[in-house]
Every structure is written in C-alpha cells, then in structure tokens.
From TrEMBL:
Protein name from the UniProt record: Protein kinase domain-containing protein
MF (Gene Ontology): ATP binding; protein kinase activity
The organism of origin for this protein: Trametes pubescens
Gene3D superfamilies: Transferase(Phosphotransferase) domain 1
Region (Disordered): 1-22
PROSITE patterns membership: PROTEIN_KINASE_DOM (PS50011)
Length: 289
C-alpha cells in the first residue's frame, strides 16, 4: 500500500509516511493532521490512529505519553456523515438521541472532535451483566436507532465497536457525557432518505461488518439496521454474559431482532421492547443483583 503525506488528497484516509523499509505505518499520524490549523490552535497532541488514516487518539501531553480524553476524526466531505452530524448534534437535548456529543470544526478540512469512550464490549465484559442492565442496554440501542429512523437516517453499519458507553470518569471529564448512557458512533456508511421505514425500497448494501443473510446484496436500509442491531446485541449476550437467566431472557428478544426484516421493531421500536420487558416475570429482574 502506498502511503504518506506526499500522496495527499482532500478527503481521508490521510496516511502517515511509511516506516523505514517501506512498511505501511497503520498507526501513524500524518504530518498534515499535525499541522491542521485546529490541532495547532488548540494545542491538541495526537497519539496514534485507531482507524488508519481517519480516526486518531489524543495525548494529555507529549510526555509522559498518557492517552487524552478526546478522539479526532477526519470527515469525508463527499459522504453524508458530516451532514448527518449537523442534523443530530443540535438535538443532543432529546433523550432518545444517542449520538455521541461532538464538535465539527470549520477551519481547514472539517474534523469531528469527540470524547474518548469505551465501546460496549470493553466496558461490560469487565462487569457482571444483570437482566436489568441487559434490558436497559437493549432499550437504549433500540431507542437510538428508532430516533435515527424517525429522521430518515439509516446507520448501515451497526456493530459492537460503534456502540460506546459513558462511565463515571468520562462523565466527569465531559460535561455532555452521561454515565451508563450508550452512544452510537461512526456514520461513515450512513445514508439519509426521503422515505421513512415501511416505505423506503431496498438499496445496495455497502461494505459492512455484519454479513447479510442468505447472500443478499440489497436490503431495506431501516430493516438492515434492525438486523445488524440484533446481531450486535446477540453477540454481546453470547460472548460476555454468563448468567443463564440473563441469556434466556435476552436471547429471545435479540433473535427476534435478527429475524426481523421489515416488521414489528421497525415500526414499533422502543415500545415493542418495553412491552417485552413488561412481560418478563418479576423474579427474573431480581436475579443477579
């Protein structure tokens, strides 16, 4: 792979120069990002790439090399991500808006600067899941996707790394981060539509983490989000939950999500999850505490 600042283009990826011997420097920070006017003006210290050429962690200071509490993303101006964030960020006061708090900079090439939060796997695999915690997480994710769909936005690439969670520490560091709140990130593949759920026709799927079922290449984008959401939540349950009661309670719901292509959850959203939770026997909620 050819890389380096000598091969600049306006949009990402912006790669750092190759390592000695011509080896691709996947984690490197490109000189043009170091020299970006916003990075210079705000004295933001950059650490390394977490998505090569696109997303970068910050440092508290050059030395000692302690990770900072922000992430910098280079926005692609030919995609819809920037326009989507411009619609979502002004509505962070809405309780069902699970967009990560962030800022789009306007000086030089647009950047998205956001809090550095743990993804849902990294956070919860260290803690014990209870039925209540699981249902709260599921409801938050469904609520966030339902909000997007209400604005005719399809995320198109929901998976565990695109769900992050506020902690007590990050809530103390960032005024707009809420402890235990799940946020949806990475609208790189996302699309905006004129038509909403139940009306929008199938589109050709982009490259995504989850493989489509039965080799399909076209999907109703809203139903695709629901399918990916089910796959994501099912993966969390199967990989990180050890309480058998938790697994029985949630597996049925995540299975319903994964098998839904245009049905009840696309149109009923969080109300359907709440109705399911209400039907769970009270003794189940008490287990695991």
């Amino acid at each position: 792979m050819s890389s380096g600042d000598e091969h600049e283009s306006n949009n990402p990826p912006w790669y750092a120069p190759d390592r000695p011997g011509g080896k691709f420097n996947a984690s490197g920070v490109p000189n043009r990002l170091f020299q970006h006017p916003v990075i210079q003006q705000r004295k933001i210290y950059l650490s390394h790439a977490v998505q090569p050429g696109v997303v970068f962690f910050t440092l508290v200071a050059p030395a000692p090399a302690l990770l900072g509490n922000q992430v910098v993303k280079i926005l692609h101006t030919d995609k819809e991500e920037m326009a989507i964030y411009e619609r979502l960020l002004p509505e962070l006061h809405r309780l069902n808006n699970h967009t990560i708090p962030g800022e789009i900079t306007r000086t030089g090439h647009p950047l998205l600067i956001m809090p550095r939060l743990n993804n849902i796997n990294n956070l919860y695999k260290r803690e014990r899941w209870t039925p209540r915690r699981l249902m709260d997480a599921i409801l938050q994710v469904v609520e966030g996707v339902e909000y997007l769909h209400g604005k005719h936005i399809a995320h198109m690439d929901l998976h565990p790394d695109n769900l992050v969670v506020g902690t007590r520490q990050t809530a103390a560091e960032h005024e707009r981060v809420v402890e235990n709140r799940i946020y949806i990130i990475d609208f790189d593949q996302s699309r905006q539509f004129t038509l909403g759920p139940g009306v929008q026709r199938a589109i050709t799927l982009p490259d995504t983490v989850h493989d489509p079922p039965n080799g399909l290449t076209s999907f109703d984008p809203y139903s695709w989000d629901v399918y990916c959401m089910g796959r994501t939540l099912h993966q969390v349950v199967e990989e990180y939950v050890t309480d058998r009661t938790c697994i029985r309670v949630v597996r049925r719901l995540t299975g319903s999500l994964r098998s839904t292509f245009g049905g009840w959850l696309v149109t009923n959203g969080s109300e359907a999850v709440l109705a399911y939770a209400a039907a769970v026997p009270p003794h189940v909620w008490r287990c695991g505490f």
